[in-house]
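Late entry, evening session. Most of the bench is empty. Finally got around to the prediction I had been postponing all week. Sequence below, unchanged from the version circulated by S.P.
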Amino acid sequence: QVQLVESGGGLVQPGGSLRLSCLASGFTLDYYAVGWFRQAPGKEREGVSCINSNDGNTYYADSVKGRFTISRDNAKNTVYLQMNSLKPEDTAVYYCAADLGSNAYYTCVVQGRRRTPNEFDYWGQGTQVTVSS
């Protein structure tokens, strides 16, 4: 069964850190680009970060650049999102996703643009991140 499971969310004070994990089962995650997305209450789901499978290139939303780091551990079939210097506006449910169905499965960028959430067909259940004092 193909599955993505996120973990590592929680409550943290502003300026704190969390590391999210995205564990894959039923398929080999390192063949695929993996995106991290987030959705805050009343807002649309937005891309946070993404990592290619073919060249390892990484991409970040401007709002998290310099604070978040995406990485892979292929031996553990896991992608991580290290989040430092967290801000209250980072509060959201965080999801990881992969595209297993298209010819662009390996990349975060298509035709010069970052791939949108509806271009990823497998999603985890999400993990809540709350940044508050």
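Two things to note before I forget:
The CA atoms of residues 35 and 50 lie 4 Å apart.
The chain has a mean pLDDT of 96.
Will write this up properly tomorrow.
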